[in-house]
Every structure is written in C-alpha cells, then in structure tokens.
Amino acid sequence: MDVLVTGATGFIGSNLARRLVELGYPVRILMRPKSNPRAIADIQSRVKIVYGDITDKSSLEEALKGVSHVYHCAGKAYIGPGKRDLLYNVNVLGTRNLLDAALKNGIERVVYTSSVSAIGITGTKQPADESQSWNLDDLRVDYFTTKHLAELEVAEAVRKGLDCVIVNPSYVFGAGDVNFNAGMLIRDLYLRKVPVYPSGGINVSDINDVVDGHIAAMQKGRTGERYILGGKNLSYKELFDLICDIVGAPKVFVPLTESIVKIFVALTEKARKLRRITALANREILLSATKFFYYTPQKAIRELGLNVRQPEESIACAYEYYKTHHLL
Prior knowledge:
Layout: E1 2-6, H1 11-22, E2 27-31, E3 48-51, H2 57-63, E4 67-72, H3 84-104, E5 109-113, H4 142-159, E6 164-169, E7 171-173, H5 183-190, E8 197-198, E9 201-206, H6 207-220, E10 226-229, E11 232-235, H7 236-247, E12 255-256, H8 261-267, H9 269-273, H10 283-288, E13 292-293, H11 298-304, H12 311-324
Helix pairs in contact: 1-6, 3-4, 5-7, 7-12
C-alpha cells in the first residue's frame, strides 16, 4: 500500500516526500496539474504522481485508492489581505474533503500539517504549549483563522473514527525552500530590503526536524493529539541579527512597534509595490510580528523523540542552498 503526500510541491511536503522515498516507502503524490514540480524534480521518477486537488472531491477518491497512510501537507500559506475565500476553500474545505475521503476509504492514519498559529499565544514571552486556547481573532489574519478551523475539522473526523494526528510546525528554515516561505526573510535581508525589525518574537525550527517529526507522529503519535514541531524562541531583533551575520548583510537597527505599524504600512506602500522593500511589510504580518509567538516543543521531544537543531545551522543551510542553486 502506498503512502500519500499532499502538498508535495511545497517546502515541508517536498522534503517529507524525499525522506520517505529515501526510507524506502512507496510514495504517491497528489499534485495539481498546474503546480510547479521543481521542488521534487530529483525524486519525480521515484514517486507515483496523481493529478488532482484537495478542493476536488472526485480527484481525492482516485488518489486514495491503494493508499494506507496520508500526510496532509497541502495548504495555502499566505498572510496578507484579499485572499480570505481562497484560504478558507483550501485550508478548511480542502482539509474536510481529504478527511472525509480518508474515512470513506479506510485510511489507517492521517498526519495533518497544521501550524503553531492554530494554537494561539500566551500574550507574554512565556512559551505556549499544545493546551493553549486559540486566541488570535483580534489579529484578523485569515491564514491563522483557517488553520484553527482546519484543526476543528480534524477533531470532528477523529470523533467519527478517523485515526489522525496533528503536527504544528513553527517558522521553518532550511534547504529546499524554493518558494521562499521563511526563506523570504533571508532573501530580503540579504538584498537590504528590510528597513525595520518588529518588536515581537517567533519560534524557529529546522526543516529536517520538522520532517522527522512528521514521520514520528505517523509512527507513534497519539490519535487526536497535536505536537508542536518547534525549536528556539528568538526576538525578531535576535533573528534578524543572526541572519545578517550569516549572509553578510548590515544589521537592522530601527524597531517597529505596534503603535506605528499602520503608519509605516501607509508610508511604504509605494516602495512595497516597486519591490524596493520587502513584501513582508504588510499590516497583517507586521501586527502579528509585534506579538511573541513563542512555543515549547517539549511534548514532541518527549513523545516523538523530536530533535531540535540550532537556528544557526538551519539558516546557514538555507543560505547555502540558495547560493548553490543561484536563487540569491
């Protein structure tokens, strides 16, 4: 029986599919016909590709035939305005479709790739754990909301009898981030397009640890439980300084507090459109970045054997990957 990976053209999904192939699993990939396969170009001949979409129920029926286990990594990762319907359709309805199809087809276990943003924050520098109640409504970030709602879909599927485990990666760095997710921060600091640093903080994880955490969750995670696949908590100033040291860019010294985010976004609109400063400088990202998205991975360390690499290693690997592949 095959192992299905959705979202395998993305950062986490492609690295996970590659690791599964290396471990000898028969891997099947659900891929949209128009998706760019460059993230899996090196393993494309070693996996079975089924064309479809998690928003298309009929394609899921076909994709799950002969499958025993599913890693559901597909999702829309976007923090910004104007894509509420798309985020809901992919992250919530798409997940519901996949879970319904898994129940119907007798899938043995599903590992769902969520996000720490579906967990919420403590409101202080105290790290949140998996028991944290979601409390990010006030930020009005559609990505956060839809990942939270998708976890409710998982909980409902578990109540119906599906064996499903949730993993919650944090801000993931490492080689293979061809779509510049967390890697956009490396690129834009390298290109001197980040004029300020936000006043909050974030949890940083390594792609290899996140992949290992997925596989361990499939093997020994507890049904219905969530596991934070995180690493070290850093203020944005600490993170920016670390990246600048690694890529050889000048450090950023101007702080951005919550009180001036809206003014800053308005003043930099033209520069953002002209790509003179980072596209990360939108209201949703910057307001979120004034908070402390700090987490503890102790549960995953204890129950899954999660390894936690240092952010210096993860960022250096990502930077070397970009340089080697002429992406910087």
